[in-house]
Design brief:
Elements lengths: L1 E18 L2 E15 L2 E12 L11 H10 L1 H11 L4 H15 L18 E2 L2 E3 L4 H13 L4 E5 L5 H14 L6 E5 L9 H9 L5 E3 L7 H10 L4 E3 L9 H11 L3 E4 L1 H4 L2 H13 L3 E4 L6 H12 L23 E4 L2 E4 L14
């Protein structure tokens, strides 16, 4: 018989995280711990990570839903994909916890050369919104740390200032030396987005994530068809759970890329289905974390490592918190690494 319990953790940002949707100074993660009462020393841990205003699970019923899950874990374990269909963050937590439990409770969910410490995952350096001087300083820090791919949040400030920041970077580094990505989080209007994209194309920008708000399929399709730089869908994927609608959306909009956030899309199985559909339309993809703590980030990184995608992934956000859970994940020279220390095994992934 399975048992489950719940722990709440408020993760504090070292520096406020700014996007076109607003500024975050903290966020809540809920940890679901699952065990078999016949073997209580082996426990699986899953993280339900909530981003206010973005996660579909961010509702007044969240706590009741999590408590129901823990009370009814045996029912949910057998049918969570259906029972939790419209609760992707909770579904992600259950999938992670059960997988961890089945693999011995050591937070090795997807064994690979990555978890053996033999290879790293190339990642982008994320630059949150802030004052231009502050953003410029953060960029210099990422460059000094060895990042060869930088992703900059845009759309919250005056675009001319943002453009000047990007232009200065491109003047210093060629496209071959530094990959530049931008993420608008839906900040631009359909009428002005093409003008902005034309300007960005002059800087050889790799891609832009979600230039306009999600839900405007016709307008987004026109942008993707005519954009001089590749467009990646992000928020557009949220809340679409059935494969038929997913296929209809991608075949209609025809983006160049999609962004996979397992904790927002409902887990690894759900994300893999997105990949399968995207590849059937020759649409590229990469994986991005969504401000999970190190429990969720660890699982996402391990899964990503098994996919053999050579692009830069968006998996570095675990370092933005001052009180993150200790884990073997480290960032060095633009790569996410799994560096295990036997002396720390008893404190890795310790839930507060």
């Amino acid at each position: 018989m399975l048992k489950a319990k719940l722990n709440k953790h408020s993760l504090i940002f070292a520096v406020a995280g700014g996007t076109s949707r607003g500024v975050l100074t903290s966020k809540i993660s809920w940890y679901v711990t699952v065990w078999d009462d016949e073997n209580p020393n082996i426990k699986g841990i899953g993280e339900c990570s909530i981003i206010p205003g973005l996660s579909p699970d961010d509702t007044p019923e969240l706590i009741d839903n999590l408590n129901w899950l823990c009370t009814n874990i045996n029912v949910a374990a057998d049918n969570y994909q259906v029972l939790l269909k419209n609760q992707p963050a909770i579904r992600f937590a259950v999938e992670m916890a059960l997988s961890d439990l089945q693999n011995g409770g050591g937070q090795i969910l997807f064994p690979s050369d990555f978890t053996k410490g033999l290879v790293g995952i190339p990642i982008n350096g994320l630059i949150w919104m802030g004052e231009i001087d502050e953003m410029s300083r953060r960029i210099e820090e990422k460059l000094a740390d060895g990042f060869s791919c930088i992703k900059i949040k845009i759309g919250a400030l005056n675009f001319n200032d943002e453009y000047s920041l990007l232009k200065e970077l491109r003047n210093r580094f060629s496209q071959n030396d530094l990959e530049l990505r931008v993420d608008a989080n839906g900040a631009f209007l359909p009428g002005t987005a093409p003008i902005i994209l034309d300007k960005l194309a002059k800087l050889e920008i790799h891609s832009i994530e979600q230039p306009i708000k999600a839900g405007m399929w016709k307008e987004m399709a026109e942008i993707c068809a005519n954009s001089p730089i590749p467009v990646a869908l992000d928020e557009e994927l949220i809340g679409i759970y059935d494969e038929q609608t997913r296929s209809q959306m991608l075949s209609f909009i025809k983006p160049q890329y999609i962004i996979l956030k397992p904790s927002i899309l409902g887990g690894f199985n759900s994300s893999q289905k997105w990949i399968n559909i995207a590849e059937s339309f020759n649409i590229g993809w990469w994986v991005t974390s969504a401000l999970e703590g190190n429990v969720g980030l660890n699982a996402i990184a391990q899964w990503t490592a098994t996919l053999n995608n050579k692009m830069h992934q968006g998996l570095g956000t675990g370092q933005v918190f001052t009180n993150n859970i200790l884990s073997p994940l480290k960032i060095s020279k633009g790569e996410l690494l799994y560096i295990y220390s036997d002396s720390l095994k008893d404190v890795y992934f310790r839930i507060p």
